Amino acid sequence: MKILIVEDNPTVRKLIQRATADIADEAVTREDGADALEAYEEMRPDIVLMDVKMPRMDGLTATRQLVQKHPEARVIIVTDYDDDQFRQAAREAGACAYALKTNLTDLEAVIQAHCICLP
Question: Is residue 66 pLDDT above 60, yes or no?
């Protein structure tokens, strides 16, 4: 499985990489939404793990643009914000799931539940 990790905090990026290491054949990281859009075009990942608050372009804007251009894109918002308003905004942007950074041990299960990856 190819995973695109979009997170501006380098420590959290590494934690997400570790949390997905068992299922990722390839993991690419980017620091903001604008870079994520470019990386998606290059790698066509099976899943995108997207932070919400980032410089240049936030994760909700990037998700919206990505899903509009590529309806097949599977984006999971990974955030600190355990808030119904953010969950609703993520759904409206086109995210298929919402995961909390405080539960990264559950991230693999969230990915497998929301990503149908064909060989």
Answer: yes
- pLDDT given for residue 118 in this prediction: 37
DSSP letter, residue 5: E
Reported as a single tens digit per residue, the pLDDT across 1-17 is 999 999 999 999 999 99
Judging by DSSP bridges, how do beta strands 97-100 and 75-79 pair with one another? parallel
Closest CA to 15 of 27, 32, 26, 25: 27
3-class secondary structure, 119: coil
Angle subtended at Cα 94 by Cα 104 and Cα 53, rounded to the nearest 5 degrees:
55
pLDDT at residue 111, rounded to an integer:
87
Per CATH, is 2-114 categorized as 3.40.50.2300? Answer: yes
Q: Tokens at residue 7, please? A: 């997170």
Q: Quick one: tokens of 28? A: 């690419």
Q: What is the DSSP string of 60-116?
A: HHHHHHHHHH-TT--EEEEES---HHHHHHHHHHT-SEEEEGGGGGGHHHHHHHH--
Tokens of 90: 């993520």
